[in-house]
Design goal:
Strand order of the largest sheet: 1-2
Oligomer: single chain
Order of helices and strands: HHHEE
Largest sheet: 2 strands, antiparallel
Distance between the termini: 32 Å
Shape: extended
Structural class: mainly alpha
Number of helices: 3
Radius of gyration: 16 Å
Length: 83
């Protein structure tokens, strides 16, 4: 969370669409506070083939779009509908 706040303060975060409201200080602080209210339970298991396989695995998710914009049909505060 501290790292996220730091990159926001250094203006290195980009916000698009509905998330553009987080460019404003108080909206961003409200978002951060809501994240602190959640109970985060990370599940981490030992990699089978070393660090290289972990980087390869995460690369699949960080360098492509999971759901393209054209597949999005509707979005509300609580749901996302897509094809």
């Amino acid at each position: 969370m501290e790292g996220l706040k730091t990159i926001w303060e250094n203006k290195k975060l980009e916000f698009h669409g509905l998330a553009s409201r987080y460019k404003k200080l108080y909206a961003f602080k409200e978002l951060i506070n809501s994240c602190y209210d959640k109970e985060w339970i990370p599940y981490i298991k030992e990699s089978f083939n070393g660090a290289g396989s972990v980087i390869q695995y995460f690369g699949k998710y960080t360098h492509r779009i999971a759901i393209s914009n054209y597949r999005l049909i509707r979005m509300t505060d609580t749901t996302v509908t897509f094809l």
